[in-house]
Amino acid sequence: MVGSVGSTADTRSNTTVVPVPDTVPFVLGGRLRHRPDNRSLFAVGIVAAVVALPARGLFLATGSSMEEGFMLTFPQRILKGDIPNVDFLHLYGSFSLHVLAGWYWIFGDTLQAERVFGLLQHLGIIFAMYVLARAWGRRTAVISAVTVTMLVLTPIGLSALAWEGAVALGLWSVVFGVRALHTDGRMRGRALVIAGVLVGFALGYRPDLVVALTLAHGWLLWRGRSDRTWRPVILGVGIGIVPLLVHIATAGVGASVRGMFLEPVFDLRPGRELPRPPSFTQIGGALQAVAEGPAEAPWWHLPALSASQQIALWFWVVIVVAIAVPVTTRRVAQSGSATLPRHSVLLAASLFGLGLLPQALQRPDSTHLAWGSCVSFALLPCLLVEVVPRVAPRLARQAWKVAGVAVASVMLLVSPFYTFRYYLLHSRVSVGNKSGGLEVGRGNRRFYFGNPDLQLASQAAIDDLDRMSRPGERLLVGPADLSRTIYSDAAFYYMFPELTPATYYIEMDPGLADQEGSRLADDVASADWLMLTNFWTGWYEPNSSSEFGSDVPNQVVADRFCVVGNYEDALVLLYRRCDHGDGISPALIGIGAERRADFEHELAERTAPK
Length: 610
Description:
Blueprint lengths: L8 E2 L4 E2 L21 H15 L2 H5 L7 H13 L15 H13 L3 H23 L4 H15 L9 H20 L3 H21 L4 H14 L3 H14 L1 H10 L1 H15 L1 H4 L13 H7 L14 H28 L5 H16 L1 H6 L3 H26 L7 H16 L5 H11 L7 E5 L2 E5 L2 H17 L5 E6 L11 H5 L4 E2 L18 H7 L2 E5 L18 H9 E7 L4 E6 L8 H22 L3
Parallel strand pairs: 5-6, 5-7
Antiparallel strand pairs: 1-2, 3-4, 7-9, 8-9
């Protein structure tokens, strides 16, 4: 078997393979030891400590009220019998929701349970990178794992989003795919089947990961090409893709194609994509602009680029790194290296990282840049350990130190606000040096907001709805102006599991819920309660989300609903269906008109020719 453990030559390249010293790493075909040695335990302990330090702060952190809100709400709906793409809008694979629903069924659908699951997904990415980088030794593996930690813990905290789960599954599929190149017999067959199953699971989480998975496993299959390679992989993929096929059969082909392919690719993009390259002077993402407004400067007070300048530079660095790692690896491998097995690790993993690049390009804010670069950046230490001895032989023994300093310096120069600063912020909360998010709650359900006014308004509205509503009634949550469905505070649905969401658009997006002819107006008409917020009324992004869509849902609100609560100057408005049809009060109509007029004036100023 070419490249198997114990082999000394690659018959295709005629390159001598030098066995990896010490214990052969798992990714290169080594067996797991029942009792890991002390050095391995120490290395893993360092990574675990880096993850553990900010963990308490992350559990108390402000949540994204739509994204984390729907990962709390969607699995609840599945447990009640609802079907994604049929009963509610869901733009990705449904497998993550079904897994999370099972998790909630066992551990309860609390915020803590959701964030524990999110932490496990992050650990899946972090330790997959550790296992891959272990081919270069424990020290390099620690550096790689710490690097990816800074990129997966900081963008969205511990929210159990499907992207992290998909990347974790995809990376572990690469681990087993590479392992299959360096084993033989039954071990090889098992590794190939496991790799295929993980590929299918990853596609069930995020079908758009197909590019990354195809690049990585396409090369692996070519590298170990034979019938004995294809058959177990196809078997594994067939097993792993069963959850996705079951969903398609349950939801229907038309609804599945529309919800997982057409809506996210064609309908969603105009209202969510951001300019490429990003502006050097202005932050494009609305959520990021809000977050950076009150953000504190890092305590180290070193000279740094502004927040918008960091994103603009990071964008180009992400592209360069994603392309440079596989290209450089290929050139090094072709130069007659004696460490060819390690190059198979680096090339397969870097091709997977290259396949994540579209995630960074379609919406280049800090979150998507981190998501799209987490694998490629974490592989830089491995590449540097390969390259440094070639360009500076005197530093060969210190290559891991050079790699660590170089990667840390790049992140400190390019993106310190979005990596080190947020890591340290959550760490300060963990040790009691800083307070976490502002809690709102109902019973054992809680959520965290980042602004005192939002907290006060939300808690008061929750308390009133709790007092006045009855189980089985229908609740719709959305923005105060339903002609701009820019965002939805879906966390409020999570607070009221006994109320039925009155809309297909639990997640609200521009170009979907607010388009002419959407079902939103009918959904509004079906509701007993409306909880409409002005949290995001000033939302501005240089895309179609600034445009006003259908005004029919607003007319339904005016014709059929009465305001029963106005909290913190209309930050939250609570409506109840009017039996007498007297609509909303003129005073509140004035508040809405004034906010809309302010936004239109600001939009005109932003978009006026300079």
